[in-house]
Amino acid sequence: MTDHPIREAVMPIMTWDDSLDIGVHDMNREHRDILDAMNAIYDATQAGKKGQPVIAMINHLGAVTARHFRDEEIFMAKIDYADLENHKRVHTKLLKDFAMHQAAAVAADGVPTTEFFQFLRLWLAAHIKCIDRKYADYSRAPKGAAGSAR
Ligand SMILES: [Fe+2]
Ligand SMILES: [Fe+2]
């Protein structure tokens, strides 16, 4: 075995696995894009990059996310998802928090804070795995039995 005194393994924020699969193809694809964009920022930061290239990656994550939230809200409206308004509110809050972290990273010349990465991990773990899963389950649930008129 070779010794690695400071072996800070470059680990992804999260790798794609079945726990992130909500069973809605288009949304899964966009979630993967978000995951890739997050990991790109993390890898670049771990490799010591900063400045404009990292800021551009953060901006890219912001753009991919805004587009995804829009698409997801259209999808939820299409399936008459009862909790759409609450879900929209959560998206708005996520975008607001993201903008705050984005501004902090820009002010720090493209060096994101540890809190930024914690925020990204929580987003994947709590939002996609739990909150997004609910509309996905709803989209597959048999309609009519519990009354889906609203
Ligand atoms: Fe989502
Ligand atoms: Fe969502």
Automatic annotation (TrEMBL):
<dbReference type="InterPro" id="IPR012827">
    <property type="entry name" value="Hemerythrin_metal-bd"/>
</dbReference>
<protein>
    <recommendedName>
        <fullName>Hemerythrin-like domain-containing protein</fullName>
    </recommendedName>
</protein>
<feature type="domain" description="Hemerythrin-like">
    <location>
        <begin position="23"/>
        <end position="136"/>
    </location>
</feature>
<dbReference type="InterPro" id="IPR016131">
    <property type="entry name" value="Haemerythrin_Fe_BS"/>
</dbReference>
<keyword id="KW-0813">Transport</keyword>
<dbReference type="GO" id="GO:0046872">
    <property type="term" value="F:metal ion binding"/>
</dbReference>
<dbReference type="InterPro" id="IPR012312">
    <property type="entry name" value="Hemerythrin-like"/>
</dbReference>
<dbReference type="InterPro" id="IPR035938">
    <property type="entry name" value="Hemerythrin-like_sf"/>
</dbReference>
<keyword id="KW-0479">Metal-binding</keyword>
<keyword id="KW-0408">Iron</keyword>
<dbReference type="InterPro" id="IPR050669">
    <property type="entry name" value="Hemerythrin"/>
</dbReference>
<keyword id="KW-0561">Oxygen transport</keyword>
<comment type="similarity">
    <text>Belongs to the hemerythrin family.</text>
</comment>
<dbReference type="Pfam" id="PF01814">
    <property type="entry name" value="Hemerythrin"/>
</dbReference>
<dbReference type="GO" id="GO:0005344">
    <property type="term" value="F:oxygen carrier activity"/>
</dbReference>
